[in-house]
Design a protein that fits this description.
Layout (H helix, E strand, L loop, with lengths): L11 E2 L4 E2 L5 E5 L4 H6 L10 H9 L7 H10 L2 E5 L1 E5 L9 E5 L2 H7 L5 E5 L1 H11 L6 E4 L11 H14 L2 H12 L32 E2 L1
Parallel strand pairs: 2-9, 3-4, 3-7, 7-8
Antiparallel strand pairs: 1-5, 5-6
Helix pairs in contact: 2-6
Length: 217
């Protein structure tokens, strides 16, 4: 005789994607922080360096109101989303993500065939993407997390590594990078570690479907 089913904590739902009509680059985080969810903004924690990195790459002032920042980013052909659309998590740490349900990244790419590169913000986003939502045939790269938890990597190094997001958005300059990835380096030459706390397939979760729309700019 089996015992009672374990109780699953409340499911948190993520944010809809932010995109323009013809994005070239899709930046994927893991799942929004508690503060980001409260604000309804990607990278809403002021200690997260994402918008500071975007300021360095695209000259988008991080002090601008959020709607203006996202508008200018989509004008640079960059879209924002997360790998996970729903999960249970205590606090904001990626290590506490449980029962993740992935977003339909493949569906987004089909709806936006201009996508040429998936840039993953941090190793957890990379691990989740390659395990649960990887899109075959689309080059991807794991970049240093902009989270304040990633203090071991300097801001200057983060900007340097993220520079490929800017150059990959320029059609002529990005050809060499994309061709190298198509020849077998689709994960940017990085090894994705196994994480015993994550399910091994996208169906291994009791999380219900989390509806979300698309925020177009």
């Amino acid at each position: 005789m089996t015992g009672p089913f374990p109780q699953i904590p409340d499911i948190s739902c993520g944010l809809p994607p932010v995109t323009g009509p013809s994005p070239l680059i899709l930046i994927l985080g893991s799942f929004p922080s508690v503060l980001s969810l409260e604000r309804g903004e990607y990278y809403g924690n002021p200690k997260n360096r994402f918008w500071a990195v975007m300021e360095e790459l695209f000259a988008i002032p991080s002090a601008l109101p959020y709607p203006e920042r996202t508008l200018r980013l989509t004008e640079k052909k960059v879209a924002l989303w997360d790998v996970v659309r729903g999960c249970t998590r205590e606090g904001s740490a990626d290590s506490r993500i449980r029962y993740p349900v992935p977003n339909d990244i493949a569906g987004f790419v089909r709806a936006h065939p201009t996508i040429r590169l998936v840039a993953l913000n941090g190793s957890t986003a990379g691990s989740l993407y390659h395990r649960l939502a990887e899109v075959p045939g689309i080059p991807s790269v794991i970049l240093p997390s902009t989270s304040p938890a990633n203090a071991a990597v300097t801001f200057a190094e983060k900007v340097h590594r993220w520079e490929m997001v800017r150059t990959a958005g320029i059609r002529d300059e990005s050809k060499g990078f994309l061709e190298r990835n198509k020849k077998g380096d689709a994960r940017g030459g990085m090894t994705v570690p196994e994480d015993p706390g994550l399910p091994q397939n996208k169906n291994e979760s009791p999380c219900p479907t989390v509806p979300c729309g698309t925020l177009r700019r």
